[in-house]
Amino acid sequence: MAQQQAQVKFTAVKPQLMVKTPKAVDAVNFYKSAFGAVEAGRSACCPPPTAEQNLPNILCAQLELAGCSFVVYNDDSAPYDLHLFLSLLSIFIDEEKIEGIGNQLCLETDDVEAAISKAVTAGAVVEGEVTEGGGTCCGGRVGKVKDSYGYVWLICSPSNKCAPVEA
Question: All domains of the chain, ordered by start, with CATH?
Answer without folding.
Answer: 10-156 (3.10.180.10)
